[in-house]
Amino acid sequence: MHLQTLLAIITVASLGSASAQNTSHCEYSCGNVTIVYPFGSGKGCYYSPDFLVTCNRSLDDPTAFYGNVVITNMSTSTSEMEVMMFVAHDCYDRFGNSINNNGPRLRLRSFRISTKNRFVAIGCDTFASITGKIGSDSGSTGCYSQCGSNSHITKDLARVWGVVK
């Protein structure tokens, strides 16, 4: 099975000019990712547990993680962290039975999703949503497509998408 990923950009308002404690055990890079304060990978190296980054060195290339999400870049100049997210999928057999699906989730406590991202749903009879909550306030948005009878849909016409900006 081919694993697809999606680049998500997370806005980190507090990346600013803060500096880590001067400790010799702090890692400042993992693979191609520079780990910048308030993030860190060791006790005393990050602002709070919400900023913990781990480095998996058992892979061919050392890989930085935020929880179970791969970090591809961190920037103090733009206050952003780029991560790779799994792409949701729902696969059906020729009889219309679901045979393989997933529902990836990204839970953020101290961060916002950047407006540089685009949320897309591709396929027939597809619904995708984003839900957010701050305190007791919550909201959601999403994409929906409906194609009708399969007898009238060709493979090229079956690719329907919606984009929420």
Automatic annotation (TrEMBL):
Top-level taxon of the source organism: Eukaryota
InterPro entries assigned: WAK_GUB (IPR025287)
The entry's cellular-component GO terms read: membrane
The UniProt entry lists the main location of this chain as membrane
The signal sequence is 1-20
Pfam families with a match to the protein in the record: GUB_WAK_bind (PF13947)
* One GO molecular-function entry: kinase activity
| Compartments reported by the entry | Membrane
Q: What membrane topology is given?
A: Single-pass membrane protein
Residue span, Wall-associated receptor kinase galacturonan-binding domain: 26-83
Entry keyword Kinase = yes
Q: Name the keywords, alphabetized.
A: Kinase, Signal, Transferase
Supply the PANTHER family for this chain.
OSJNBA0016N04.9 PROTEIN
Q: What is this protein called?
A: Serine/threonine-protein kinase, active site protein
